[in-house]
Amino acid sequence: MVKTRLAQNLSVEAVTELYRCLLHDTLTLARSLGDVDVAIMCPASDVEELTQLASGVAGVVAQKGEGLAAGLTSVFAHFAAPGRQRVVAFNSDSPHLPASVLENAFEALTGHDMVVGPTHDGGYYLVGAKAAHPALFDGDGMGTKSALEALLARARRLQLSLGFTDPFYDIDVESDLTRLAAELRLAPARAPRTAVWLKQWGQIVAQSRTGTGDL
């Protein structure tokens, strides 16, 4: 059910193990901010399994409805309550994101209604707001090349002031994995568990190519 585009090149078991690594390192990244409450928003059917994977470092909350748009709507409906004036939601497949980007997102919300982190492929890896806006993610086509454009159009219709974090990339296809592997070879501390998985994956790919060449 996760990283389905990667499943075109990797086994379901490999993709699932990779996702566990991404999630683990993402939670470590979020916890590194210090005075921030960290939680996972997910479908109700996944709460038990993700609670086990989170190992007590984050709360797990069941979203209302199905899909990513419902998940994001649930994040702000649940957490943007009195006493929590800045809420930032970001994906679980950018564990290599610099912590400074998350800090900048919270800072941007001191002067804007909303903050967005664009991806290079036309989507977004982060969205934050100071209040819940139920119509913000209506019909959201996350995972498409128009997702960011659609989100910004709805934000403008709601007359929300916008701030932005630096463009970044998440892990969707094999070329993203290759890029991330190269970066983590130089700086594995950015996402330690993912770095170990990618090192093993790289060795398997290299052996496979060598074996093919020997035929």
CATH homolog superfamily: Spore Coat Polysaccharide Biosynthesis Protein SpsA, Chain A
* Mean pLDDT over all positions: 87
Name of the CATH architecture:
Alpha-Beta Complex
Helix content: 40-55%
Estimate what percentage of residues fall within beta strands. 5-15%
CATH topology: Spore Coat Polysaccharide Biosynthesis Protein SpsA, Chain A
* Tally of discrete structural domains: 1
Describe the main β-sheet briefly: 4 strands, mixed
SSE diagram, text form:
Elements: H1 12-31, E1 39-42, H2 47-54, E2 59-62, H3 67-79, E3 87-90, H4 99-108, E4 114-118, E5 124-129, H5 147-157, E6 162-164, H6 174-186, H7 192-214
Helix pairs in contact: 1-7, 6-7
Model description:
The protein has 215 residues and is of the alpha/beta class. It has one domain: Spore Coat Polysaccharide Biosynthesis Protein SpsA, Chain A, CATH 3.90.550. Helices cover 46% and strands 12% of the residues. It contains 7 helices and 6 strands, in the order H-E-H-E-H-E-H-E-E-H-E-H-H. The chain has a 4-stranded mixed beta sheet, sandwiched between helices. The chain has a two-stranded parallel sheet with strand order 1-2. The chain is globular. The two termini are 35 Å apart.
